[in-house]
Amino acid sequence: MTDRINGLHHVTMMASSARANNAFYTQALGLRRVKTTVNFDAPDVYHLYFGDELGRPGTVMTSFPFPRAARGRRGAGEATTTAFAVPEGSLDTWAARLALLGPTRRETFLGEERLLAEGPDGEGLALVEVAGDARTPWTGGGVGADMGIRGFHSVTLTLRDARATADLLRLMGYAEAGREGSVTRMRLPRGNGAEIVDLREDASAPPARQSAGSVHHVAFSVADKAAQAEVRRELAEAGVQATPSIDRDYFWAIYFRTPGGVLFEVATDEPGFTRDEEAGALGTALKLPRQHAHLREALARQLEPLEGLA
């Protein structure tokens, strides 16, 4: 069992419109767009990052907005709910705010108050009241500190059989922390505040069909490449084959598929989003991976204009 993983690093979803995706996460949820770049494998598609002031690990929702992509189908083998932590007593205000954009539902789950909602492509989201979360919210998007998102609370994976994925999470340092209905909660004993993975078992769930509104992968945080290499070694010893470490400009990443079909990533906390932009200007310029720098003029004409992009 490794002790190198700190919790979630980021969650990456697919979308159908860069403009609608950007508006929802920056205006409705009040997150900061901390990086505007492109998909390494499809440079004609944005890769947008939304999080706290600096895009700290455990706070960052990212998206691949493929223009006019059809909506995906939720099902087994994917993350079906991404939950954010908000202060105690803020859900009534959030419910009023998000009700203007679509249906919401409030419930108590595993002893926590939460508000279920959907993003612009039907992505499953939740806001969970958490007492004493010391993470500092971004307030530049017009959402005050009294209700601002602190970062991730958890992700929920829907699986036909959760046992093998639970075993994998135990290898990654997680332990069972509760059960309610068909859901088993796995939690790190310590970490960055984004330390929960919920496993929802549904033997009859159809296989997920990934497209707009689907989570592409769930990324976990490690401090640096040395810690990542140790995690990769321990995974290999357990029979889990991960990719070599890949340079993603703002972190190094390895990828592997879970027994239930969900794509996991382990990403380094370094070098972070200030490697090529000043902290005060994060997300305001189109940043291109080196291999796509020669496409800048063409991409500037082709990519959908975004508010706040120079």
TrEMBL record:
Pfam families, sorted: Glyoxalase
The organism's place on the tree of life at top rank: Bacteria
Cross-referenced InterPro entries: Extradiol_RC_dioxygenase (IPR052537), Glyas_Bleomycin-R_OHBP_Dase (IPR029068), Glyas_Fos-R_dOase_dom (IPR004360), VOC_core (IPR037523)
Protein name, as recorded: VOC family protein
Boundaries of every VOC domain copy: 151-269
Taxonomic path: Bacteria, Pseudomonadati, Pseudomonadota, Alphaproteobacteria, Rhodobacterales
